[in-house]
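Service request form, structural biology core

Requester: graduate student, group of Dr. S.
Request type: structure prediction, single chain
Budget code: on file
Notes: please return the result as structure tokens.

Sequence provided:
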Amino acid sequence: MNRVTVALALITAGVGLAACSAPQPTVKTVAQQEVPTPAAVKVPSGNRMLASFDGNGVQIYQCKATAWTLLEPAATLSDHGKPVALHYQGPIWVSTLDGSEVGAAPVSGASVKHDNAVPELLLKASENHGKGQFGEVTYVQRLATRGGLAPAGACTDGAQAAVPYSATYTFWAAAK
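Core staff response, request fulfilled:
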């Protein structure tokens, strides 16, 4: 799937479904429960939180050599139920309000694994485009994850599976 296909599918299908000392607020999850940020995925000092959004969508897996591997995420990020961004392969987040975007890469060792959900992650921005809400993002956290794990068992090469997931995404920028 390419970015346009994923974005259109999300919009039309309405997929609703290091030493760190920066202040790490508790985050309200998709279920509106406050959850503390795990130490392994805390953002380094010198950054401030810009926004926190609920993410709902799917993790898309493809079968290669009879094993499921992650192909891409496809999710809509919402602010109190109002869609504000799309998340897709890269990983990349693009604002549906102003067109700005941020691409990021996982920070080595900054992951919290779960038995029943994709890991919580800390990602460092690798590219920013536009001057809107994602134009100055330095870090992205994927927190309070639910679902999204690869299907269990063997598979047929080339097969794809979309597994529902949700997470809270927080976006950070350098402190001014």
